[in-house]
Design goal:
The complex is a heterodimer of chains A (232) and B (107).
Chain A (H helix, E strand, L loop, with lengths): L2 H12 L4 E6 L5 E5 L9 H10 L3 E3 L4 E6 L4 E5 L3 H12 L3 E5 L16 E2 L3 H8 L5 E5 L4 H13 L4 E4 L3 H13 L4 H4 L2 E2 L11 H18 L10
Parallel strand pairs in A: 5-6, 5-8, 6-7, 8-9, 9-10
Antiparallel strand pairs in A: 1-2, 1-4, 3-4
Chain B lengths: L2 H15 L4 E10 L9 E5 L4 E3 L7 H14 L3 E6 L2 H7 L6 E8 L2
Antiparallel strand pairs in B: 1-2, 1-5, 2-3, 4-5
The chains are: A alpha/beta (232), B alpha+beta (107).
Organism (chain B): Xanthobacter aminoxidans
InterPro entries (chain B): MoCofactor_Util/Proc, XdhC_CoxI
Protein name (chain B): XdhC family protein
């Protein structure tokens, strides 16, 4: 690999952007495919498919190797609540870089969340610096529209791979009305997983955390969008 | 997807800029249930220092020694490791898997 290509790849990774190193196996010739250069690549369809599946492998009838680099997944949890206390260690075990955001300083304390980054600010203040992106899951758990909804709207606009929100169907129906009034399309709003969590009959906060984590992993690994199944 | 892989590529760049001879090994293909997925990387320097993993331990030794030749020759090569079941169990490829690894110099 040429040093300049390696440096460009590392720059993409540092910026949390997906990139694919395309290697012609017979000659060793290499190029970097990014969102910016993908369209002009002769293997564009195969590279796009590999990116969608987040999977490295051979292409071009075996003559080419596509090394897919996608950023490590993050999870931003809105609400320093009971479910979050269970979800934080589970999600970190599963490989997510997890952060909790809650402007209510009584909730967002290091004592309640040891070793977890906790941002005690409003979403509008904190999200620009956090940088939501397509490799981030947004899990909204406060039940409070003032806190959850700005984060949900921002996550939909940033095309987060998963957006889920706690609340009953009735709560969600009202949320949908407000998000539509705020200018979000029906298509974007339909991406919200609500009620949140895979339907495993979860009841306790820890069980709901399992249901949420399972749903996030399914979205990450299969690209599955919002489904009917729900736990809470 | 792997935080470690990110460190591996950062190390490859840093080591090369320090003037070291560097090779990157990448898992090209696996057959059976190999311990590390396609795309996993190992970075090796000319002294035999390495970071990352292509097999969870069992063929790293062989890849590291081949990497020294790749760094010296300045040309990539593809290595295939097919391991009989019993041997595989002894060296750590518990599945009797087979892997192909692409080793390339950083230049």
């Amino acid at each position: 690999m040429r040093l300049d290509l390696l440096a460009a790849l590392n720059a993409e990774r540092a910026a949390r952007r997906a990139a694919v190193v395309v290697t012609e196996l017979a000659t060793g010739a290499q190029r970097l495919a990014t969102a910016a250069t993908l369209a002009s690549d002769p293997l564009a369809p195969e590279i796009a498919a590999a990116l969608a599946e987040r999977r490295s492998g051979k292409a071009g009838e075996g003559s080419v190797f596509l090394a897919v680099d996608v950023p490590p997944p993050r999870m931003l949890v809105i609400g320093a609540v009971h479910i979050s206390q269970a979800l934080a260690p589970m999600a970190r075990l599963a490989g997510f870089d997890l952060t909790i955001l809650d402007p209510r300083t009584a909730f967002a304390t290091p004592e309640r969340f040891p070793d977890v980054p906790v941002i005690a600010e409003w979403p509008e203040e904190a999200l620009p610096a956090y940088g939501l992106d397509p490799f981030t899951a947004l899990v909204a758990l406060t039940h409070d529209p003032k806190i959850d909804e700005p984060a949900i709207a921002a996550a939909l606009r940033a095309e987060c791979f998963y957006v889920g929100a706690l609340g009953s169907r009735r709560t969600h129906a009202k949320r949908v009305e407000r998000l539509a009034a705020a200018g979000l399309s029906q298509q974007a709003i339909s991406r919200i997983h609500a009620p949140i969590g895979m339907d495993i009959g979860a009841s306790s906060p820890a069980e709901i955390a399992v249901a949420v984590l399972a749903e996030v992993i399914r979205a990450l690994r299969t690209g599955a969008s919002a489904t009917a199944g729900a736990a809470a | 997807m792997d935080v470690t892989d990110s460190d591996v590529l950062a190390a490859a760049e840093r080591w090369r800029r320090e003037g070291r001879g560097v090779a990157i090994a990448t898992v090209l293909e696996t057959w059976g249930s190999a311990p590390r997925p396609v795309g996993s990387r190992l970075v090796i320097d000319a002294e035999g220092n390495f970071l990352g993993s292509v097999s969870g331990g069992c063929v790293e030794g062989a890849v590291v020694s081949e990497a020294a030749e790749v760094i010296a020759a300045g040309r990539p090569r593809t290595l295939e490791f097919g391991v009989a079941d019993e041997t595989a169990w002894k060296v750590g490829l518990s599945c009797g898997g087979k892997i192909a690894v692409y080793v390339e110099p950083v230049d």
